[in-house]
Design brief:
By secondary structure, this protein is mainly α. Helix content is about 75%, strand content about 5%.
């Protein structure tokens, strides 16, 4: 007995056409013994037996069965119309549902469902044929794409831009494999492409065969450059050697190319010689920079001491402390070029401040107009200027000699100023 009242799932039946009556009595009836019939174009057909309630409940139950089938048909139509369903799969599903309608235990317009399914199959057939036509069109496009590649390859076979043409021919061969066409046509077209590539390869081989002598000459020239570079690798004559190695690099680039293996071997030797020298130069520069930074730090410490000298408190002590700073200043070494001048200027400013204080005191003393003092002051001033000038020029030996003379002159001046 077919009987499932109040528990059957209900589908959306919005896809049911207006010709499909919603009145169950239009499409079925229940006999007095509970036998349920559905009306079809071929007459009535028994679809079940109902013993659970009145006839309206029976018809409602089997109508819901019909609505389930109608909902499935509607879903099939909707999915196909939206493009979410494959045409062939939709045809298969429609045929399955249509084949089940003759035995369907449902009350409703089964003929209308069958007509909808038949129409859906026809629409799917049209799409399948359109897809086949599109596939044929794509196949024709693929063949045409390969023909264009061949035409381009045959033109490239005649050019002499060896690298660009060779690269493009390789790209054409790579692109060729990505384009799928029927095997027979592909074989015929591939023969043409292979012939074009072969012609290009023969011409290129002949061209590079003529370059053999040039490569030999380039190898001989570069071997000389390598040997010279290797001879300079251990030099400590930094500036001229650096300039010569850079010149050798320019000559290397203009010397032409040897064969690949020879070129690679000579380049490794040439580059190793260059790297060896410049690595040593870099280490020397790094050491020099470190020493200069240490000198800078030492001179900055001396400057802090010098700039803290107050000549107004004790002029003699100020002079003594300045001389001490100046002696240590030279022993500290040269600071980096970018800071040396500024540091020298700051120390010179301290010296001028103390010298000005000395001059002021002298003017107040009784020996202000002493010829000896005047000459000594002039001598000291000249020496100080000379030291500043020679230090700026980087002539350390001359600076040291002048500073020794300056020390003596200052001592004499000090004695003269004290009246000694």
């Amino acid at each position: 007995m077919e009987c499932e009242p109040n528990t059957h799932r209900t589908w959306d039946t919005g896809a049911v056409s207006s010709g499909e009556s919603a009145d169950p009595a239009s499409w079925g009836r229940v006999d007095s013994d509970g036998t349920v019939y559905v009306r079809t174009a071929d007459g009535e057909r028994v679809i079940g037996s109902w013993q659970a309630g009145d006839t309206s409940a029976a018809l409602a139950f089997f109508t819901r069965r019909y609505e389930d089938i109608a909902a499935e048909v509607g879903l099939l139509e909707t999915r196909f119309a939206s493009g979410k369903a494959d045409a062939a799969h939709t045809v298969s599903s429609a045929q399955r549902i249509r084949g089940s309608l003759d035995e369907a235990k449902a009350v409703g317009d089964l003929a209308a469902l069958a007509a909808r399914l038949t129409a859906l199959e026809a629409t799917c057939g049209e799409r399948i044929e359109a897809e086949r036509a599109a596939k044929r069109a794509r196949a024709a496009e693929q063949v045409e794409a390969k023909r264009k590649l061949i035409e381009e390859a045959e033109k490239l076979a005649e050019v002499s831009q060896w690298k660009s043409a060779g690269d493009r021919l390789r790209e054409i061969a790579d692109n060729w494999r990505d384009i799928r066409i029927d095997r027979k046509t592909d074989g015929e077209l591939w023969a043409r492409l292979r012939s074009a590539r072969s012609a290009f390869a023969k011409r290129r081989t002949a061209h590079f065969a003529n370059l053999a002598e040039e490569r030999k000459t380039a190898a001989e020239r570069k071997e000389k450059l390598v040997k010279e570079a290797e001879g300079l690798a251990g030099s400590s004559d930094w500036k001229p050697t650096s300039a010569r190695l850079k010149t050798l690099m320019r000559e290397w680039k203009s010397a032409g190319r040897a064969d690949r293996d020879t070129e690679a071997e000579m380049w490794q030797r040439f580059r190793a010689a260059q790297d060896s020298f410049f690595k040593r130069l870099s280490e020397v520069n790094a050491e020099r920079d470190a020493t200069a930074r240490e000198a800078q730090q030492a001179r900055e410490a001396l400057l802090r001491e010098a700039e803290g000298i107050d000549p107004a408190a004790d002029l003699a002590d100020a002079q003594a402390r300045l001389r001490s700073v100046q002696e240590l200043w030279e022993k500290a070494g040269r600071a980096p070029r970018e800071t040396a001048a500024a540091l020298d200027d700051r120390l010179a400013a301290v010296a001028r401040k103390i010298r000005d204080a000395v001059d002021a005191q002298w003017r107040e003393s009784s020996v202000e107009n002493s010829p000896l003092v005047i000459r000594l002051r002039e001598s000291v001033a000249k020496l100080e200027k000379k030291i500043e000038r020679e230090r700026a020029a980087g002539r350390d030996a001359v600076v040291a000699e002048a500073e020794a003379a300056l020390s003596t002159q200052r001592e004499w001046l000090s004695q003269a100023e004290r009246g000694g």
